[in-house]
Amino acid sequence: MAKISDTSESWIAGIFFVMNILKLSKDFLCLFLIRLTNVLFQKNNPVSNILTY
């Protein structure tokens, strides 16, 4: 894949960067879904009242 040590270091840094971006996006998605469920299922919420019918 990489023939020069500088190139291989760049590949490794790029892979770690992508892995960190993926982990961060998963964390934000989980946080968003948790907050969304809290909003939808709390009492006296207009959106919740629509969903219960």
In short:
The protein is mostly helical. The chain is built from two helices and no strands.
Please give the alpha-carbon distance between the first and last residues.
58 Å
Number of helices: 2
SSE topology string: HH
Large-scale geometry = rod-shaped
Using the CA coordinates, give the radius of gyration: 21 Å
Taken as a percent bin, the fraction of beta residues is: under 5%
Number of strands: 0
Query: Major beta sheet, specifics?
Result: none
Structure description:
With 53 residues, the protein is mainly α. The chain has a domain at 27-53. The chain contains 2 helices and no strands. The radius of gyration is 21 Å and the shape is rod-shaped. It starts with a helix and ends with a helix.
Break the fold down into its secondary structure elements and pairings.
Elements: H1 5-41, H2 46-52
Observed structural traits:
mainly alpha; 2 helices; 83% helix; 0% strand
